[in-house]
């Protein structure tokens, strides 16, 4: 019995493999929801199928949208045609479009940003009550290249394909079977594609969260959505000092996260990585000088997650400060220096952005000199470097930044350091093209991966200079010894190693050495910075362990002692974190020199306050959620004509009824057909 079942299963799989060609290198667009609506893409519950049409120009849309005789169509297009104009035309004719597959090339177009022109415009500081003339990017459009595709809703699936053998196979299938010749309809069989990306969540976050609380279905996964949130990484306090000091300068990196139109392809090179790599390098540059001559104030480094989705991390930190759930409160903050996008220079200057509304009312809330002091500390820290720090020539709002969430709660002196005076220099903001190539991160072709890890690129040299300025300015701002300021320098080798690890491959010898043994499997090529709940917190963990190694101290604790330091004198988890790391492999050895790192690194959850308060329709906090799904799949196959399908169905039905009639006839006459002639029994006398 089992042998026959196994044979049956194997036979079915064999038939399926002969019919379908599975596509393995695909990434879908998924559905996201907030307080008011839903965005993204999805297929029907059974997947969407269409005849493949390769779009060669925008004029070629006429075939799938009106002239083509075999709708619906699965449109395959190059990334150069992945524009708002084309996508909206297909959205408006979605009854003839089954789905879209976008071929992502190995080279980048001149520009592309699927984000909006005004990122996070509804959750920043500017509103009808605060700087109304600056709200909604009225004076400065930060992302003029943004086409808003990431915030549209499409009723059909949209997948990305890599420019590889699979894509060439699809195109060849189209050429062999689907391409019209002289305007005539192609002959069957036709090459078709089927995309599966059905999303369970619908409408908006309040609807989904309400359905989460109601057990109304046999399948508990049917209407679930989950909160887009991750960890916020904090260093508290940064260096020598005491928590009893009344004021802290605060340095916060821009983001740890990024996003793109497609799920799981967010590299955020300029948008995220340039900022937090600079911050990490600045922290390392301050290590020695703060031990030698501790400043009079503590420094708090903060790395926020979820900022792309309406400032999840920073809004949670401010909320905790306001409610006494954080190590300090808002009144303890002396000033904020935030690192924005700093890697793409259009000239020799970097720009210091401040809030013009705060400056206008500075005599009532914050002394103007506090902001000016921070500006002066930054500008005077560029000695011996190749660029200057200048303020914008015009009065304009702060760029999208975590600082805005602090200003919503309380006037605080703050500066955002960025490489743009007005509009972003980043041509690929929040897109899959914001990668290593966008930062000109290139290596000689004859270098091995380990040699590339050590190769100091021009980008690394540039960010090293920025990190040096940041470290010097922070030391001054914290009241450090001015005579030691020019001795503070970031390490270009560490910067180049971080850029390689975060943008090329985190699975390298240096990252392996600073990670815990149980986390070695998260190292990848390269990490992804999308913050959805189905993703791992790889960037958070990488930054946590790097920060601990760059600012902490190696101890002589054993692994068991490292796990339970409170049992030892002079060790305390209340003051420090203890991390067991793999260490390097010494020469002529196969075993790693593992050790315990003591550091002041803390992790706190970056869950939006809206979900803690149960206010799923909140206008003050992020309400973004991500839909769940059962599976994601894509495949191609040859489809027969409708007439042949109906003929096959008709023959199949006829054979079925014929077999039923034959079976019925045989069963009713079984006693006659299968009776055996018996000899009469011998009579007994």
From TrEMBL:
Coiled coil (UniProt feature): none
Homology family: Belongs to the nicastrin family.
Main subcellular localisation: membrane
Protein's UniProt name: Nicastrin
Residue stretches making up the Nicastrin small lobe domain: 28-201
InterPro entries: Ncstrn_small, Nicastrin
GO CC terms, sorted: plasma membrane
GO BP, sorted A to Z: Notch receptor processing; Notch signaling pathway; protein processing
Membrane topology: Single-pass type I membrane protein
């Amino acid at each position: 019995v089992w042998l026959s079942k196994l044979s049956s299963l194997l036979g079915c799989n064999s038939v399926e493999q002969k019919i379908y060609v599975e596509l393995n290198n695909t990434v879908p667009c998924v559905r996201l929801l907030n307080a008011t609506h839903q965005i993204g893409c999805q297929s029907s519950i059974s997947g969407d199928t269409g005849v493949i049409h390769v779009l060669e120009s925008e004029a070629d849309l006429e075939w799938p949208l009106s002239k083509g005789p075999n709708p619906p169509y699965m449109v395959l297009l190059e990334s150069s045609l992945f524009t708002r104009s084309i996508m909206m035309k297909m959205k408006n004719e979605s009854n003839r479009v089954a789905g879209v597959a976008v071929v992502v090339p190995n080279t980048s177009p001149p520009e592309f940003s699927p984000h909006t022109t005004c990122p996070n415009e509804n959750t920043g500081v500017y509103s009808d009550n605060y700087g109304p003339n600056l709200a909604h990017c009225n004076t400065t459009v930060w992302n003029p290249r943004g086409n808003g595709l990431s915030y549209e809703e499409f009723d059909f699936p949209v997948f990305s394909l890599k420019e590889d053998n699979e894509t060439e196979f699809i195109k060849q299938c189209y050429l062999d079977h689907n391409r019209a010749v002289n305007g005539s309809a192609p002959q069957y069989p036709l090459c078709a594609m089927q995309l599966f990306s059905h999303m369970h969540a619908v409408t908006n976050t309040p609807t989904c969260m309400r359905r989460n609380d109601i057990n109304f279905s046999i399948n508990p996964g049917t209407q679930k959505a989950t909160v887009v949130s991750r960890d916020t990484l904090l260093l508290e306090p940064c260096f020598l000092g005491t928590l009893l000091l009344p004021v802290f300068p605060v340095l916060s990196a821009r983001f740890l996260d990024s996003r793109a139109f497609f799920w799981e392809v967010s590299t955020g090179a300029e948008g995220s990585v340039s900022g937090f790599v600079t911050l990490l390098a600045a922290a390392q540059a301050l290590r020695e000088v703060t031990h030698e001559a501790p400043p009079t104030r503590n420094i708090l480094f903060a790395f926020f997650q979820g900022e792309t989705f309406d400032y999840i991390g920073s809004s949670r930190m401010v909320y905790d400060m306001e409610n006494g759930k954080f190590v300090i409160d808002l009144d303890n903050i002396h000033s904020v220096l935030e690192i924005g996008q700093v890697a793409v220079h259009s000239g020799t200057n970097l720009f210091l952005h401040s809030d013009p509304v705060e400056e206008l009312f500075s005599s009532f809330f914050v002394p103007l000199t506090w902001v000016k002091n921070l500006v002066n500390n930054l500008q005077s820290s560029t000695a011996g470097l190749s660029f200057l720090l200048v303020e914008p020539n015009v009065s304009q709002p702060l760029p999208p930044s975590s600082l805005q969430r602090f200003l919503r709660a309380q006037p605080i002196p703050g500066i955002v350091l960025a490489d743009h005076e007005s509009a972003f220099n980043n041509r690929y903001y929040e897109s899959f093209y914001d990668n290593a190539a966008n930062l000109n991160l290139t290596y000689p072709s004859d270098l091995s991966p380990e040699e590339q890890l050590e190769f100091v690129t021009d980008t690394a040299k540039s960010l090293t200079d920025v990190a040096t300025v940041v470290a010097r300015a922070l030391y001054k701002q914290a009241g450090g010894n001015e005579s030691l300021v020019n001795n503070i320098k970031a390490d270009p080798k560490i910067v180049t190693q971080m850029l390689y690890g975060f943008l090329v491959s985190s699975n390298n010898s240096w990252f392996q050495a600073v990670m815990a043994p149980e986390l070695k499997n998260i190292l990848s090529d390269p990490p992804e910075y999308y913050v959805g709940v189905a993703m791992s917190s790889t960037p958070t963990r990488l930054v946590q362990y790097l920060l601990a190694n760059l600012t902490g101290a190696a101890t002589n604790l054993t692994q068991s002692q490292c796990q339970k330091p409170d049992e030892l004198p002079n060790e305390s988890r209340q003051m420090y974190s203890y991390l067991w790391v793999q260490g390097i492999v010494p020469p002529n050895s196969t075993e790693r020199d593992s050790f315990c790192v003591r550091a002041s690194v803390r992790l706190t959850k970056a869950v939006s306050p809206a979900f803690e308060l149960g206010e799923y329709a909140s206008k003050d906090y992020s309400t973004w959620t991500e839909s769940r799904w059962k599976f994601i799949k894509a495949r191609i196959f040859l489809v027969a004509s409708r007439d042949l399908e109906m003929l096959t169905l008709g023959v199949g039905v006829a054979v079925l009824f014929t077999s039923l009639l034959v079976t019925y006839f045989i069963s009713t006459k079984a006693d006659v057909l299968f009776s055996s002639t018996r000899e009469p029994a011998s009579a007994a006398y």
